[in-house]
Amino acid sequence: MADQDFNMQPLPNGADTAPAVGLISQYIKDLSFENPNAPAIYQNQNAPTVDVQFNIGGAQVGDEVHEVVLKIEVRAENEGQVAFIVDLSYAGLFGFRNVPADQIQPYLLGEGPRLIFPFARRVLADAVRDGGFPPLLLEPIDFNTLYLQSQESQGQQGVAGQA
Fold first, then answer.
1. Which residue in 61, 71, 84, 133 has a CA-CA distance of 20 to 30 Å to 97?
2. Quaternary arrangement and interactors, per the entry (predicted)?
């Protein structure tokens, strides 16, 4: 049905006025794996300290089409030496039809990343494994709650700035 929703042909029985959102495509936008201290890093048997950072962006790229980019940066260090660095930008194209404008951003920054995260997580785990390390399996993330928290903190900052 998702294919039918976004071929821009009228739907039967007047259903073309109902709000609809669909994932059109998902893809690796950018992927970088660095292993700057190989092969010496493999001689250290201690587990590395891993720092993971996320960034989410959304932008309109066409009529009723938006792109969500989930950027994941990972830096692993072992006793002061960099074990590996991974930068992944994983994106999804989402089609919107009859969705109110004020509902698009919450979807792009909350629900969109939730849908593409499992696939980005697999790409990241595979890249780390292919780099000679145990796969890095990230825990699931509640992007909707993170979005609501960021909106709440921005609202509080706006009120504080007006006081």
1. 71
2. Homotetramer, a dimer of dimers. One homotetramer interacts with 1 SecA dimer.
3-state DSSP helix/strand/coil percent for the chain, to nearest 5? Answer: 40, 35, 25
Phi, psi of 66 (to 5 degrees): -125, 150
Q: What is the pLDDT of residue 125?
A: 97
Strands 81-97 and 20-34 turn out to be antiparallel
Q: Is the pLDDT of residue 77 over 60?
A: yes
Predicted local distance difference test score (pLDDT) of residue 45:
77
9 and 82 Cβ atoms separated by less than 8 Å: no
- How far is it, in rounded angstroms, from Cα 31 to Cα 89? 6
CA angle 32, 130, 42 (to 5 degrees): 100
* Phi, psi angles (nearest 5°) of residue 71: -100, 125
State residue 140 phi and psi, 5-degree precision.
-60, 150
Is 26:93 a contact under the CB 8 Å cutoff? yes
Q: Is 84 helix (H, G, I), strand (E, B) or coil?
A: strand
> What residues contact residue 26 under an 8 Å CB cut-off, 6+ apart?
90, 91, 92, 93, 116, 119
pLDDT digits (tens, 9 = 90+) for 114-139: 999 999 999 999 999 999 999 999 99
